[in-house]
């Protein structure tokens, strides 16, 4: 299994206190990563956003399904929880993530909000335009 703790410590040192709790699951840590992302979105902190979304995408791309599933349910599933940030969030999600996590959004969002999210991705243009 990929050493997510080492990668997390290198990319997100501001969460070092959380990652050092080896008894905590990655789900606890990924929840904290989402809270860090919220703060960074609100502060327009591009450096932190780049590192957070880069780390999340790295976890998503790991060959072990454990990390992929964990980052999906503990991070990506929640990216639209602060509805006011939806435009900024949508631009940061790679197409392969959207395809895989959309079923999770279906049961969390109203039909109207899900339609708006779908429209956001349609407005982004061809796949590959989304940046991490």
Automatic annotation (TrEMBL):
Pfam families associated with the record: DUF7674
Domain of life of the source: Bacteria
Domain DUF7674: 10-96
Official protein name in the record: DUF7674 domain-containing protein
UniProt source species: Umezawaea endophytica
């Amino acid at each position: 299994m990929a050493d997510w703790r080492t990668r997390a410590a290198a990319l997100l040192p501001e969460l070092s206190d959380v990652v050092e709790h080896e008894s905590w699951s990655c789900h606890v840590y990924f929840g904290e990563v989402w809270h860090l992302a919220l703060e960074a979105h609100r502060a327009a902190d591009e450096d932190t956003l780049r590192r957070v979304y880069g780390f999340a995408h790295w976890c998503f791309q790991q060959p072990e399904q454990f990390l992929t599933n964990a980052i999906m349910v503990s991070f990506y599933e929640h990216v639209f929880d602060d509805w006011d940030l939806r435009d900024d969030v949508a631009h940061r999600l790679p197409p392969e993530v959207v395809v895989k996590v959309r079923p999770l959004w279906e049961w969390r969002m109203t039909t109207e909000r899900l339609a708006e999210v779908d429209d956001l991705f349609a407005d982004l243009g061809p796949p590959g335009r989304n940046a991490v």
